[in-house]
């Protein structure tokens, strides 16, 4: 298989050159061809919204990319530290990050093992992008993990005509500071161009230990003529953030002081005083290097190939109290069996190689694109013990190896996609993707159980649809798509451990039995647009089979087992509208109403009782059938309203004509922290509002901008995410829930100054 991947890679690097005349206007086609494979066109029957680079740069400078997309339909965002910097994540239609396919210039950014995109590893990305297309549903994703709810297709590929430079500075609450600078040559007479950007963000964070020190850099060196484009892009991300994943007890949320508590790194000193380890942190550095070549053979045929190399390494560092040496792989009896405090690191070191090549033919009524995507991910997981209060500072900790395991994941994708206009007002769309995945895992995990495992999956993912555009203002469409998604590393890890432990205990027949998830996505949409108004409605039916869920079930040897749930679905309607009521007043709104159900959910809870007021395990598990339940973190209602005012826009001579203000309201309905629909494990419905005021001064040789941003304008004491741990009380025959939540910051402020020419 390894030989096949690289042989195919070499073949695609050598196309046959076709000579021809050099029509004008091809530069624009070359500039956009890099990302066209993963994006829907204006006639493609796919549900999507476009967000321009100008819109992204206008948001609060504290916001990461998920937070910048918070007002898009069906999107819910959260930041673990309570602000916009640090660990941010998003869901779309309730689908979590591992179910969202993310590409940058056509290259998948999802981590091959977890299938997640860790946005904190590529901070301030919003300021580097020329545009983002957010697709909802299975969409058009041509490579990488299956899109099981959405696709985010990002582009940095935009060549300006003129030289430019910009500087942005921001300062705000929680000692937050942001700075970015960018410069570019524009396209020179010889077709060369160079762009560079750098950003840095610092904050103390809202909750304790939610500090962040993040930076990113971007550089592109390119050459372009009428038929050829060659581009080398480098993207760098580095983050040093405090651990915030623990969450806090819900009762703390109503106290302005208690809700900022975070137990990360907490321990007792020898005198019984509460102390905190200063370096309870997450650290990661990532380099992305992309080399792209695009060739315009004639007006109808474009070929583009991109080679991507990504290098990532980083670690968690944690202080743990009351652990034993056996927990960290020391021999039995080491340290006389004492328990003590430890400082440990859990590290990653990985390399990701991708070759993406596609060929696109287009004529007046036909567009056909075919391509391949080959990738290889090689990642090490490394555990280190840095310190023990029992062994002290003199012990040679480098002599002890806690764990080392490796994951090798290779993929081969091939697709062909066509759009055909049999009539001037109708477009037919068809898409077929083959996806092969080969996974090999080896070496011990943190509990010394070997993760030796191999698997391969072969998928065919078809898509088809029709769109109708009987005039320039109206469009209607429907589509059907079927997709697959393989289990991730975390999905199968505990199953591997269970199989190994069962074999050690003489139990036969145990193994990894997880099946890939499957989904049928049906979309029906209509949109209308005029000079002053636009509106759209979309009905979606996302039908799942074999969805993987954590049920709480333990194996015979004590490991948590994920299970395939035979039937579940997400069904809803999305409404959106925009109205330019006056030249100085604009209103935007969207609303999603949905049901997100599991047909027959069963949970397996540990059985407990109370002895002298203390929780005591009594062994075994209770199987509880909840019937039809709502999927976790899937609100049935989301919506937003945004009002933008430019009061002096029409006054030609007024220096205030560029002054604008905007206020938005985001509503998110009730969500559950698990699949049992337990009120004690839920996120209450909330509404949060943000206000911004901006002005731009024309200095003749440049423009000076100022902005003021108020987040959580009405000081809503809410939380937006969390987790839950449930047990079964045998005394009362009831479920007891112990949730943790992530409170979001109260009213906070940010000021921004920018200069650009």
The gist of it:
With 757 residues, this protein is mainly beta.
Structure report:
This protein is mainly beta and 757 residues long. It has one domain (2-744): TonB-dependent receptor, beta-barrel domain (Maltoporin, Chain A). The protein contains five helices and 36 strands. The strands form five sheets. The chain has a 22-stranded antiparallel β-barrel. A five-stranded mixed beta sheet has the order 1-6-7-4-5. Strands 2-3 form a two-stranded antiparallel sheet. Strand 26 and strand 27 (614-630) form a beta hairpin. The longest helix is centred in the middle third of the chain and has 16 residues, at 489-504. The two termini are 51 Å apart. 41% of the residues are buried. Mean pLDDT is 89; it is low at 1-26.
């Amino acid at each position: 298989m390894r030989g096949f991947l690289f042989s195919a890679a070499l073949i695609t690097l050598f196309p046959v050159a076709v000579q021809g005349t050099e029509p004008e206007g091809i530069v624009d086609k070359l500039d956009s061809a890099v990302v066209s494979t993963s994006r829907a066109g204006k006639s493609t029957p796919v549900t999507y919204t476009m967000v321009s680079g100008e819109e992204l740069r206008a948001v609060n400078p504290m916001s990461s990319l998920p937070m910048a997309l918070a007002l898009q339909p069906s999107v819910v965002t959260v930041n673990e530290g309570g602000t916009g910097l640090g660990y941010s994540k998003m869901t779309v239609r309730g689908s979590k990050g591992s179910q969202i396919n993310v590409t940058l210039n056509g290259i998948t950014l999802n981590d091959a093992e977890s299938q997640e995109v860790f946005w904190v590893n590529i901070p301030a990305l919003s300021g580097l992008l020329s545009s983002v297309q957010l697709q909802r549903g299975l969409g058009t994703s041509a490579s990488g993990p299956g899109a099981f709810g959405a696709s985010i297709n990002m582009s940095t590929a935009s060549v300006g005509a003129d030289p430019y430079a910009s500087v942005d500075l921001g300062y705000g609450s929680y000692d937050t500071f942001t700075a970015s600078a960018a410069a570019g040559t524009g396209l020179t007479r010889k077709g060369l161009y160079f762009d560079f950007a750098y950003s840095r963000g610092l904050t103390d964070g809202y909750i304790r230990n939610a500090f962040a020190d993040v930076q990113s850099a971007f550089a592109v060196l390119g050459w372009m003529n009428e038929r050829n484009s060659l581009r080398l892009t480098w993207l760098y991300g580095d983050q040093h953030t405090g651990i915030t994943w623990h969450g806090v007890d819900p009762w703390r949320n109503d106290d302005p002081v208690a809700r900022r508590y975070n137990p990360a790194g907490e321990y007792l000193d020898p005198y019984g005083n509460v102390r905190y380890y200063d370096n309870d942190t997450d650290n990661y550095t990532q380099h992305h290097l992309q080399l792209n070549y695009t060739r315009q053979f004639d007006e109808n045929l474009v070929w583009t190939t991109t080679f991507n190399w990504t290098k990532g390494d980083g670690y968690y560092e944690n202080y743990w109290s009351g652990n034993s040496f056996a927990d960290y792989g020391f021999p039995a009896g080491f340290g006389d069996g004492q328990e003590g405090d430890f400082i440990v690191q859990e590290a990653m070191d990985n390399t990701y190689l991708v070759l993406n090549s596609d060929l696109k033919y287009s004529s007046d009524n036909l567009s056909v694109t075919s391509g391949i995507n080959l990738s290889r991910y090689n990642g090490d997981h490394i555990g280190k013990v840095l310190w023990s209060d029992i062994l002290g500072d003199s012990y040679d900790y480098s002599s002890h190896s806690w764990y080392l395991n490796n994951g090798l994941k290779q993929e081969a994708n091939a697709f062909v996609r066509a759009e055909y206009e049999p009539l001037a007002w109708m477009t037919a769309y068809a898409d077929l993707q083959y996806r092969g995945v080969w996974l090999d895992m080896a070496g011990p995990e943190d509990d010394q159980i070997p993760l030796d495992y191999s698997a391969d999956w072969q998928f065919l993912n078809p898509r088809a649809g029709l769109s109708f555009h009987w005039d320039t203002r109206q469009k209607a469409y429907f589509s059907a798509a079927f997709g697959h998604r393989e289990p991730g590393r975390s999905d199968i890890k505990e199953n591997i451990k269970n199989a190994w432990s069962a074999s050690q205990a003489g139990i036969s027949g145990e193994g990894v039995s997880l099946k890939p998830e499957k989904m049928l996505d049906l979309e029906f949409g209509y949109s209308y647009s005029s000079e002053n108004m636009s509106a759209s409605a979309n009905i979606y039916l996302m039908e799942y089979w074999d969805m993987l869920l954590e049920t709480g079930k333990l194996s015979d040897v004590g490991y948590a087992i994920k299970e395939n749930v035979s039937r579940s679905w997400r069904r809803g309607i999305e409404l959106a509208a925009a109205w330019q009521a006056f030249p100085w007043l604009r209103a935007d709104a969207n609303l999603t109403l949905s049901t997100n159900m599991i047909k027959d959910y069963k949970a397996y809870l540990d059985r407990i009782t109370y002895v002298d007021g203390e929780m005591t395990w009594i062994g075994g598990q209770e199987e509880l059938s909840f019937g039809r339940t709502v999927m976790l973190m899937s609100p049935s209602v989301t919506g937003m309203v945004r009002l933008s005012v430019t009061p002096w826009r029409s006054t030609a001579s007024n220096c205030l004509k560029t002054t604008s203000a905007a206020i938005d309201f985001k509503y998110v309905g009730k969500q559950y922290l698990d699949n049992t629909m337990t009120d004690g494990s839920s996120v209450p419905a909330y509404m949060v509002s943000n206000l911004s005021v901006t002005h731009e001064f024309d200095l003749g040789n440049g423009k000076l901008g100022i902005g003021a941003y108020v987040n959580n304008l009405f000081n809503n004491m809410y939380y937006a995410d969390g987790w839950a741990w449930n047990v079964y009380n045998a005394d009362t025959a009831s479920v007891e829930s112990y949730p943790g939540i992530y409170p979001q910051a109260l009213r906070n402020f940010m000021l921004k100054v920018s200069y650009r020419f």
